[in-house]
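Hi P.,

Sorry for the delay on this. The queue was packed all week, but I finally got your sequence through. Input first:
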Amino acid sequence: MNDEPPSKRLLPRLGCFGWGCVISAPPLLFAVVAFLIWSNGVSHDVQAKLAQIRAAGQPVTADELANAHLLPPNTPDGTRFWLTAIEPLDGEAFGAACANLPLVGSGGDEIPPPGEPWPQSDDARRLLEQYAASLRGLHAAADDQGGVRFPLRFNDGIAMLVPHAQRLRGAARLLALEAHVKAHEGDATGAAESFHAGFAVARTIEHDPLLIVLLVRIAIDGMFREQLERLFSAVEFTDADLARLRADLQRAQYQGGLLQAMYGERVIGLATIQNPSKAVGNEAPLFSRLRLIHGNDTRCYLECMELVVAKAKLPLPQAFAGIKQLDADLAATMGASSPLSPAGNPMTKLLMPSLTGVFTAATRGTASNETADAALAVEQYRRRYGKLPEQLDELMPEFLQAVPDDAFDGQPLRYVVRADGYVVYSVGQDLIDQGGLKGPIVNALSDPGDLTFEVKRGRKNIDNWEAAKGQEAAKGQNYFGK
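Then the structure:
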């Protein structure tokens, strides 16, 4: 029989491990309680931010985004016309048919100006004949007054497919090729109609709340501006042609689409954080699978997107000027300097890096649209008065309500009359006025140069426009003088 007191018998039996548990229990309990309090605070912050977003009329879930994407009531739905027209313009058959041609494929040299031999013109016409049904559909849909909402599966998150975007790119290339064929045939109005349909292709996706689709839209508009500039010195468009092309350029506004795309990306980002394995599969960061940190990741993502949305609401010159600061603010919000940040917000880090580049694309596209529109206004002035204006102010108020501001620096667009023509330009993303010199002329490797719309005297012969006008009237066709 053991006569030792119970307390003395118990103490030695706890051992080192037991005593370690006894000693560490209070700190562990404190840590658990602290974590629960912190987690509850994070959850409260997230719910408050989500409520604030909803109160502003912005979507939070995929279903809310889908409802916001619906056509307005009583708006005719023209989507099926576009879907029918673009359906053949993707895939192996279309790629093979286009392969050896410029614009639509990778073959061929640069298309020469109208009036010069174009060895591939017959091949281009055969391609247009092959896809004549699609082209007729595109032209008809371009003038349809209905709205367009292509099918989008927002519940798929960042794994969502947008096949219509690639088909629209094919449609745009086909229309650009058609514009060159029409121009070589002496059909200036036909070329203008192809440009009009091309700009309409881009407008079909102006309401898609996705950054990738916004970039496709900007790229399509950019291709048509570039091809319009290439043909403009050689083709004498009519007054009606110029007016319609200007209306198309003026409708190509990106800031509203930029803001809507940020709203859409926020919804998709939130869904991705909540279920990273479904959205990105094995590419999901290791720590993103821990449910314990989803709340903190969500809060961090919402804070970052709040900064991005606020920037998207600013006028483009201010938004562009603040891009570097935005990058710094996002890095600070994500805690880039903290060694614990990879575990704290892994999905936010995965989702955020690609966002700020779109501000430059939207600013560049807007500035390019404005320069093209102002150049066409100069052309309207030339047709009316038989001479070029000395400065853009002379276009007001008949052809411009005001000289457009450069989307990069907020100053009025620049205009230079040269011995061989004229140029309207933006200073571009380097914010340096280089007199209307394009990047490749200044320094192709490191200097983006100015964004220009340049019109050469060339075949159009600006100085002798009155004589050209008389010849055009006598021939009953558009003028392609030499």
